[in-house]
Design goal:
16 strands; homodimer; about 425 residues; Aldehyde Dehydrogenase, Chain A, domain 1; alpha/beta; four-stranded parallel sheet; 2 domains; about 45% helix; Aldehyde Dehydrogenase, Chain A, domain 2; seven-stranded parallel sheet
């Protein structure tokens, strides 16, 4: 039997037991997992060193090296995150709906775990711990497949938290990592229909596309964010400036950062020179439409590709549009249904924008950077769904659950 | 451009408009569609005749011919169904959750249509009308792909209801059927990621497996029901008899019919002879385990295959189990997570069964035949989901929706 199939079978078995574990035991296990991280910090750092050395040998970027690095402070952060998950409300067992039918059958819809969650992700090893914590709290077994650059760190973390959980009383095999860096294991994980209930890819667009294309397991698509900010003619332009700078510059490498600025033609001449200067001072490279270029000649000319690109970088496309409607059409054409914002003082414009723009999160007069489980008060997140099935936007504990109908009768039959 | 791609593009466009159509207009359109069916009954029956003749020529079964047949009474039924959908509550626009964050951002989660729904189904042409009605009510465009035996009926029905909807004011192309019987069209529909938001296959196991294997569009798996009834040692045996006969015989060809009877060993000798005689009187063929065979020698011997088979027929597998726990293990091994029932008077047994059996619907002292949108008070259904992602059990209007976050700010930026 292949490793992945074996992990799948074990996870399935574990999930059946874990589904009915009490909230109290799950919380105790989460706290024990947190403590185990602190106690075993040296071992984690030692495993991480191997990854860092291999990373250096493979000449990976400084940014990636930084994301890969684990030190005592970061290990303490992971432990604190686990303890916070223990404080979140257990979604399992919630009575979602219930009614007595005319024939006196009582039909209850109750919240249950999904079962087995598969997670495919890239560099940061803290995802290993965060995702495992959310899955344990929501009663799901998890199979983790992190990036190959972090494999030693991930395996060490998995061992430590899985052991701590079992010692506290969790079923065996609730938390498992795939131990091989072989890409064939990922392909196999995608075909584990019947063992894995949902597969969540977190990472670049090509990873996500590959999972969508090849998975027979239901997938939750995450994260690609070609986000827009539209400055309406009625906008408070000072507010607009703050929001654009924040959405572009506060953390340009993440999916909820803004990539394209759309400006209503009536305010373009007044608004553009100031905001572009501000962005350029922050080292943002501008790719402007011809009108933008005619107003501010020191910008690059945008090509069709710029409207499509999620830069994830200090770059921004800028387009002047003749109307709110044209802004909405642009977003419908190029957006990825992640986060979209309008800055306006016009009530009707705000209403049209929120109704007609189809995205996980639609903002009026706020930065797109707020699309985040922590910010929304979900406590933590497994990623941000950009599909419409099952979960949309930041996925907290509830997104890791399903429901089942429980029906209490007294001998009813169907006539 | 291929037909399917063209339908997909048109549906996508239509869905954007339909998402914001008022409840009142949708209801008027549903009523107009119903009236149009009645007015055009002759045309429908004429198209249906073509299918029936072709069916006869292809020698399809009497049962299939009956499912294919449309007459005035059946057309009136379809019209009535549409009018009933008009009476259901519009799920779109519901405020699911909302809160003001500490930074005064107002975060609302509102219910929105999925967008474009693809439905692949088999013989019965009334599915065309039912599914279109549910999609219109929930604000979704639909692309229909019925069985090739019903192609003329389906195209006639689609034309009539689509036209009636547009005349009443619905956007063009909300309801479209694929006009070719070519199977390549189905394959293409499965690859319409980006145009189709969900694909629902309704039909036999091989159709469903093929969609799961090949679709890049998110799928909702439906319908395969290897359903069990467990007769506990504490069961009221008269009640048990009624429930078993109902679950097996009331309509054996459907997914919520029972396929395997599990009987606690302590009541086997008392219960089996009576129930098996009763089933045999109703022409049910029995496939029993060795102990069943030792009690009632006039039954076939069950093989491993019998535990796995969804007969959809007057056949039933029977197994004596030593305990409640063994019954649950059997269901975990062979069940398809559809509908499972226990008959018991023991409170703890009922509790264990409902907690440990993982299925869309788990019954205590009632027939599995109740798993149905109409029975649960959902009004109508698009099928019965046996997966855990997005929807589980009978799928009514709400299963055809997603949510989006709408966030109202006053200039908030992330620090």
């Amino acid at each position: 039997m292949s490793e992945v199939l074996e992990l799948g079978k074990r996870a399935k078995k574990a999930s059946v037991k874990l589904a009915n574990v009490s909230t109290e035991l799950k919380n105790r296990a989460l706290n024990a997992m947190a403590d185990a991280l602190i106690v075993n910090a040296k071992e984690i750092i030692k495993a991480n060193k191997k990854d860092l050395e291999e990373g250096k040998r493979r000449n990976i970027s400084t940014a990636l090296m930084d994301r890969l690095l684990l030190n005592e402070a970061r290990i303490e952060d992971m432990a604190r995150d686990l303890k916070e998950v223990a404080f979140l409300k257990d979604p399992v067992g919630e009575l979602v709906k219930g009614r007595k039918l005319p024939n006196e059958l009582e039909v209850l819809q109750v919240r249950v775990p999904l079962g087995v969650v598969g997670l495919i992700y890239e560099a940061r090893p803290n995802v290993t711990v965060d995702a495992a914590g959310l899955c344990i709290k929501s009663g799901n077994a998890i199979i983790l497949r992190g990036g190959s650059v972090a494999i030693n760190s991930n395996l060490a973390l998995t061992d430590i938290i899985a052991d701590a959980g079992v010692k506290e009383g969790l079923p065996e095999n609730c938390i498992q990592s795939i131990s091989t860096a072989d890409r064939a294991a990922v392909t196999e994980l995608m075909k584990m229909h019947g063992y894995v209930d949902v597969l969540i890819p977190r990472g670049g667009a090509s990873l996500i596309q590959s999972v969508i294309k090849n998975s027979t397991v239901p997938v939750i698509e995450t994260g690609v964010g070609n986000c827009h900010i539209f400055i309406d003619k009625s906008a408070n332009l000072n507010m607009a400036k703050e929001i654009v700078v924040n959405a572009k510059c506060q953390r340009p490498g993440v999916c909820n950062a803004a990539e394209t600025l759309l400006v209503h033609k009536d305010v373009a001449e007044k608004f553009l020179p100031g905001i572009l200067r501000k962005l350029q001072e922050r080292d943002v490279e501008i790719f402007g439409c011809p009108i933008t270029h005619s107003i501010c000649s020191d910008v690059n000319e945008a090509t069709e590709d710029d409207w499509k690109t999620e830069y994830l970088d200090l770059k921004m496309a800028v387009k002047i549009v003749p109307s709110l409607n044209e802004a909405i059409l642009h977003i419908q054409k190029y957006g990825t249904n992640h986060s979209e914002a309008i800055v306006t003082e016009d009530y009707s414009a705000a209403k049209s924008f929120t109704e007609e723009v189809d995205a996980a999160a639609v903002y009026v007069n706020a930065s797109t950077r707020f699309t985040d489980g922590g910010q929304y008060g979900l406590g933590a997140e497994m990623g941000i769904s950009t599909q419409k099935l099952h979960a949309r936007g930041p996925m907290g504990l509830e997104a890791l659950t399903s429901t089942k109908y429980v029906i209490y009768g007294k001998g009813q039959i169907r006539s």
